[in-house]
Amino acid sequence: MDRESLCNTKTMTCFLKLDLIIESPLRIFNIELGLTDINDNAPHFRRDRIELDVPESASPGERFSLPNAFDPDVGANTVKTYKLSESEHFTVDIHSGSDGTKYVDLVLMKALDREEKAVHNLILTAIDGGVPARSGTANIIVRVQDTNDNAPQFDQAVYSLNISENSPAGTVVIKLNATDADEGPNADLTYSFTLYTSEKTQEMFSLNSNNGEIAVKGTIDYEDMKIYEMFVEAKDNAPVPLSGQCRVTVYVKDMNDNYPEITIKSLKNTVDENIPVGSVIALVGVSDRDTGDNGKVNLAMNKSLPFILNKSSDYLYELLVSETLDREKVPEYDIMLVVTDEGNPPLSDNETITVHLLDVNDNAPQFPQTFYTIPVMENNAPGASLSSLTAIDPDLHENQYLVYFIIEKEIVNTSMSMLFSINPENGNLYALKTFDYEMEKEFLFHIEARDSGVPPLSSNVTVHIIIIDQNDNTPLIVSPWRAHGSEVKEKIPRSTDKGTLIAKVIAIDSDSVHNSRITYQFLQNTDATLFSLDQYNGEIRTMRMFSYRDSRDQRLVVIAKDNGEPALSATVTIKLSTVETALKTYTEVPLEYDIFSDLNLYLVIGLGSVSFLLLITILVTIVLKCQKAKPSKAAPSCRNSVISERNSTIADSTLVSNDAYWYSLFLAETRKGKLVVRQPAPKGARYIVSSLPRSTGVTETSDSAASTLQVRK
């Protein structure tokens, strides 16, 4: 019998009422059967698994009701006690109900920490009071419910890292990691910058609120900011959120991304060309916003110029003049300054300084030639332009404006300014008179060009005027001599032999050698077979002996023609009369007679007089040299040339004669191989004319107003 199924009482012994019916005889008996319980049932829990959710914020002593165990046995055999598996946090408290049922409570002894242990697995054992005792168990799963009691924590409180400037946008700087020991919403974190993070920093960097990733947002420039500090907060999503913070320090690494700069602090754009060497033209400052080697700079010029850079400090240079400047060679300088840093690769920049040179009157006028030889045709018209003597002055403005004038010099008591004139503005040279080659063959003087600078500078040039001969003089027949317009009459024997010299025609021409070269021709000849004429020396000779058929009177017209263009000529008529008897043997005797004719006699007398005057001049010169010489008038200053007395004397040597006849005689002497020279005599004396052989070398020396001729063999 199973008491638990038959009895529904809680007493140890239950009575069963039975009606016993005996059929034969029929009898009914009322029987009460007392059924005593035995411990044949173990306690059991209605659920084998009991789950409890306990907040970790529960305080010790807090109680949690547990379902009690059921044991169908009664009395001592029913549930007597409960036992809990070992736990430092929980225990059980057993108490009895009014009906004797044992109830159990789970009591918290120690505060829970979900982060330490989120689930507690306990075994609750119910034990009855039977002998032997039976028991039943149930698993208690205590799930500790999270409470937002843990603030988020970063891996580090301070992060330090480097980043290169100019890193592109989107570059990840760092990914922050914060953890929260809580769970669920209490562990869901949101990242953000705190108020301690500057707006400048927030403009440069972005923060991902979900994963804590910091990335470059703006343009990072080392020169703008070298260090960025970010204060980042991680906050959970609990109703009452907790947060954790960290500091991120970003050091910007300098890159050579800034070009060095040049600053002109002081500059002289215009300077005089005679500025002293070592003068300061400009103060130049250099800078580079980079640091280290990237910020070290060097300044130099891109090419060699007469300037130098002097480093006065790390970032200041002086631009100095290193050589003498000359505006006429280089009027201005474009100085390119190049600054270069020491980065890798190096960066550079440049700045150009323009320095203009102001003109200083440091250049004297210069003629293209130091000596001008100007040919002038005689018989020129007064006021005719001879040449243009233009000097060049490389200076500017008033330093370049030139004035021309003739340095005064007297020739035969005639001032040079009376013979020539020069335009003071353009240097055009003019003749003021008509020149005659036969009177003046050359002139030597100086022309000075002077600028308008302060002080003025000047230079001069030697001008040699050469008078060019024109064929303007007709040959003059001097032998045989005859009165003007008359015939020459000669008598010769008819027995004259062949080749006998009958007459000699001598003509002179005062023109130059070329124009004065005389040739002789018969203009008229009674018998062309009887006489011959040498075209060069003018000798008339017989070509044969006279015959009885020949006329007694022979008329010869000889023309003397010069070599000019057009040629000029003169004629002489010789009338020859033949005689039967020989008056004289006319061989060389006529030549002797010709030599000692009246004309030649006059010539000899004239030459003797000239020689005497020359001797007197030499003696006077010697006497003057023995005396104390007076200071001679100094010649005007000349920068480029010195007037030699020799040239001056030669320039003064102009043949002068008042007697055209004597002048013709002198030219005749020249034709005979002698050189006619005129020397200025001492003051008060007349001009001396001397003749020297052409082969004689003549050297003129002048120590005083007189001159001496020295003859060199």
TrEMBL record:
GO biological process: anatomical structure morphogenesis; homophilic cell adhesion via plasma membrane adhesion molecules
GO cellular component assignments: plasma membrane
CDD domains, A to Z: Cadherin_repeat
Location in the cell: Cell membrane
SUPFAM superfamilies (alphabetical): Cadherin-like
Pfam (any one): Cadherin_C_2
Coiled-coil intervals: none
UniProt keywords, alphabetically: Calcium, Cell adhesion, Cell membrane, Glycoprotein, Membrane, Repeat, Signal, Transmembrane, Transmembrane helix
Transmembrane segments: 601-624
Main location (coarse class): membrane
Boundaries of every Cadherin domain copy: 46-154, 155-262, 263-367, 368-477, 492-592
Bilayer disposition of the protein: Single-pass type I membrane protein
GO MF assignments: calcium ion binding
Superkingdom of the organism of origin: Eukaryota
Protein name: Cadherin domain-containing protein
Organism: Phoxinus phoxinus (Eurasian minnow)
